[in-house]
Amino acid sequence: MARRTVVKSPAEAKLESQEVEHYLRTLGGQLRGPARARAAVIDEIRDGLDDAIAAGTSQGMSTAEASEEAIAQLGAPQLVAAAFAGELAIHQSRTILWRLLLTGPLVGIWWFLLLVVPSQHIQPATVISAIPALPVVAPAVMIATGVLATTGSLIRWLPESSPRQAALAASLIGLVTLAVDTTMLVILATRVLNGTAGSLSPIIAGIAAAASIGRFPFAGAAICHSVRRLMFSR
């Protein structure tokens, strides 16, 4: 049987658009993850609905019938959002890990300039004495790098991390970040209070403190994301 092409009137096109947009708005409210990743999911679903509606109208359905059929076949927004939850959780974990990894050196260099360089004895023991939280940084970086590798393009050759594992890693790195930055702020505050901060540059001290405080929201987001993910996966 030959397909009958249906030319949509402006009213029908508007009706189709309203139904699709309502569905997509509802779906968007159910998605959790980075804005760019959510937008990509919405675009993918929109394209699928448009294709399904076009196929329906080409077979003789009205625009309303084709829209209803396409949406019904796709499923309830809650179910579609659940299907994308793992993918979006991976995106969220990767975003958090990248932020913490990239800000780490930017924060660390100021504490190094503040506490290590003035001593003029830049040796491993001196560095660790000035920055006692340093030994936990290397393992944290290795964990974060490993998760990024096993959730990105390298999964062709490496075992893929699950959304739960990625969220746990993000939470761990967030906790380490909070611990390291808090430790450095306490060290600075202690030196100020006991009067031994006279040799420190006030400008560098202010920048270092502000940089550490500025990372708190990222670290907190990592922990909250992990908690939400663990609750969702139960």
Brief overview:
By secondary structure, the protein is mainly α. The protein has helices at 10-30, 35-58, 63-74, 77-116, 124-130, 137-149, 163-193, 202-232.
3D architecture notes:
With 234 residues, the chain is an all-alpha fold. The chain folds into 2 domains: 10-75, no CATH class; 85-232. The chain has helices spanning 10-30, 35-58, 63-74, 77-116, 124-130, 137-149, 163-193, 202-232. The longest helix is centred in the middle third of the chain and has 40 residues, at 77-116. The two termini are 50 Å apart. InterPro entries: Perm_prefix_1.
Determine the strand fraction and express it as a percent band: under 5%
Oligomer: single chain
> Could you give the distance between the termini?
50 Å
Q: Can you give the helix content as a percent range?
A: over 70%
Radius of gyration: 26 Å
- Give the number of domains: 2
Sheet having the most strands: none
Give the H and E element order: HHHHHHHH
Structural class: mainly alpha
Average pLDDT, to the nearest integer?
85
Task: Give the overall shape.
Answer: elongated
How many strand elements? Answer: 0
Count of alpha and pi helical runs: 8
Transmembrane segments: 96-116, 136-155, 167-188, 200-224
Keywords: Membrane, Transmembrane, Transmembrane helix
Topology:
Blueprint: H1 10-30, H2 35-58, H3 63-74, H4 77-116, H5 124-130, H6 137-149, H7 163-193, H8 202-232
Helix pairs in contact: 1-2, 1-3, 1-4, 2-3, 4-6, 4-7, 4-8, 6-7, 7-8
Keywords:
234 residues, mainly alpha, 2 domains, 8 helices, disordered N terminus
